[in-house]
Design a protein that fits this description.
2 copies of one chain form a homodimer. With about 325 residues, chain A is of the alpha/beta class. Helix content of chain A is about 50%, strand content about 15%. The first copy, chain A, contains 16 helices and 11 strands. In chain A, the strands form 2 sheets. In chain A, strands 2-11-10-6-3-4-5 form a 7-stranded parallel β-sheet, sandwiched between helices. A 3-stranded antiparallel β-sheet of chain A has the order 7-8-9. In chain A, strand 4, helix 7 and strand 5 form a beta-alpha-beta unit. In chain A, helix 1 crosses helix 3 and helix 5 crosses helix 6. Chain A is elongated. Strand 1 of chain A pairs antiparallel with strand 1 of chain B. The structure holds a DNA duplex (30 and 30 nucleotides).
DNA sequence: CGCGCGTCTGCTCATGTGAGCAGAGTGCGC
DNA sequence: GCGCACTCTGCTCACATGAGCAGACGCGCG
């Protein structure tokens, strides 16, 4: 027998076997009878078909997860955990899915944090909304960065923290301060205030942190809230800022983009996140790939909740799961 | 427990179970331990997930077939057999796949025909090329419709039949006549010729027929070959012609579009195809849906080899394999 | 020509899995 | 409040399946 012919014939047999097994629900024995091979050979053909990626099994569900990517992420970046959800085409939907996933993660996370430090923003608010009432018992919540909005939608920052706490039957402690102060002295003064200082101290002692990150562009909540102007953002971008983590703008190499601005930013520092046992980053969508990369590659989070595209971008995988396996199969043929 | 909540919780569990089972290759027992349910429940969750279409299994291979569609086609149109291949995006590729499938079918078809009647055309030529040498032993081949080309590519009709016969180590008998004669008298005269008459008689006795069909437009081989002009085609279309079967133009209701023209067309009649035990139609591609429908719905073929889009078009299914299974599942639920 | 190597084949056996069944729990109507 | 019907649960058992193994086969090398 010429090997090439045998291989081709086997591949065809494998395809037929796969069809009968997976589409017609026949037993390997029956398939053997049809294809005139022993049932053991059928088993081997099916194993081959699976290996070569001829059989593709996909779990189609909004709540599905991409366990393979999760494993890759934890391995590559030394994370404690990762949650990757399939990405719907619609970006609004995607944010919702990622937030839901974060809520799910929070609910099932053990040990239950006694005190949870949270940031604020659109994503965090969605996470809060996605949490079921009674998601845990008596988890107290503390804000980890300043959140008094200067302009529209006052109180979203506060309501996020409060909602998370309420739904767990716990108390929320707010950080009664703007995110960014205009003058360094003001920031120092506020920090020195007993209440604010106390909250910051409490925040440092949280057993887990939950936060998202923003992009360094004019769509940022900081611009919306009036803390920064478009010009400020432009300057930050010039200095290499890719986005903000709990109010602090960082560059692609995970360092503070503008130390002067950062000094005026009130809240937990990056080191506290880096050293925390559990710091959960919730982030999704194409625009945030750069920030996500900066955060994840520099150890600022220990748990990542994201969508599959972001995950693939972080891993440098091609964003194509179809051709990939197919080409792999033919490569193996050639070898 | 509120039913709605239970159902949702179960669905989520089912998704998790499916992930662990199909993506992580865990045993149902292990999954039970992880999800804190008995292994029997895991089994049931997986069964549910399969029913509801949460788990989608696809066989990704150029030589794959769509057995479900094949079954539907044979049932709906009372066919003896059907072969449906997945449709690649590329139309050239699609024709190649369908032809290959036809060749495969011919090779494995039992009983082996002693004498095979074939038509000619682009598709049939591809089928001939796709046949492996020695695909059968001593199958003789006879042309079933006139095939002397008037213009370019002389002999393709002949070479198709000869190639099929040669590769099986058999003899080819050609029909030495044009497909369509200009005058009825000429046609009758040629038909009366001993050679031609003999070949036609032989063709009527073939144990199986293999043919394709053409579309009623100017891309037709009949125009290419000079038998018909663009004007002729236009007139045929006006009379409701959708395409030709072994040279005879038919309408959507399976009748001859132009009896006068048909009388001048030399070769087997439609009735011979209809009454044959085995008449294999090889047809694929969007433009041919109408002809295919005319042929299949009016019993002119007993075996259909086609692509999945054509199959779905014939069945009136939406060309969407996602929702389909989901709805079927819920139907079963409801019953 | 004979030997050894690697691959493929058919098998035994342990394990994984689905059908079917009895009992518990749950909601609904009387 | 009581029973009835229904679903859901945990189980037994038979069956389907994959791991592992010894022998057969084909192939190339000396």
């Amino acid at each position: 027998m010429v090997p090439a012919e045998t291989a081709a014939a086997n591949e065809l047999l494998a395809v037929r076997a796969a069809e009968l097994y997976y589409e017609e629900n026949k037993t390997q024995d029956e398939i053997g009878a049809i294809l005139r091979v022993t049932r053991w050979k059928v088993g081997r053909l099916l194993a081959q078909a699976r290996e070569r990626g001829i059989i593709r099994i996909e779990i189609v569900h909004p709540r599905a997860r991409r366990l393979a990517l999760e494993r890759d992420l934890t391995a590559r970046f030394g994370l404690k955990d990762a949650v990757v959800v399939p990405a719907p085409a619609d970006d609004v939907e995607l944010q919702a899915r990622v937030s839901e996933a974060a809520a799910d993660y929070l609910v099932s996370h053990r040990p239950v944090p006694r005190l949870l430090g949270v940031s604020w923003g659109r994503t965090l608010h969605q996470v809060a909304e996605a949490l079921p009432s009674g998601w845990s018992t008596a988890v107290n919540v503390v804000q980890i960065n300043g959140g008094v909005s200067l302009s529209k939608r006052p109180g979203t920052a506060a309501s996020t923290a409060v909602m998370i706490a309420q739904k767990a039957g716990g108390q929320a402690t707010l950080l009664p301060s703007p995110a960014i102060l205009e003058r360094l002295e003001t920031k120092k003064a506020i920090e020195g205030d007993r209440t604010v200082g106390g909250v910051l101290g409490m925040a440092r002692g949280a057993s887990a942190y939950l936060y998202s990150a923003g992009v360094a562009d004019t769509s940022s909540v900081h611009v919306d809230s009036g803390y920064l102007t478009a010009a400020d953002i432009a300057r930050l971008v010039e200095r290499g800022a890719v986005g903000d983590v709990i109010g602090r703008y960082i560059t692609a190499d995970g360092t503070i983009a503008d130390p002067e601005l950062d000094a005026r930013t009130l809240g937990l520092g990056l080191e506290e996140l880096r050293n925390a046992k559990t710091s959960i980053l919730v982030i999704g969508g194409e625009p945030k790939h750069a920030v996500a990369r900066a955060i994840v590659t520099h150890g600022l989070c220990s748990v990542l909740v994201t969508d599959e595209h972001t995950a693939r971008a972080l891993l440098g995988h091609p964003d194509d799961h179809d051709l990939e396996s197919a080409t792999t199969a033919s490569r193996e043929d050639a070898s």
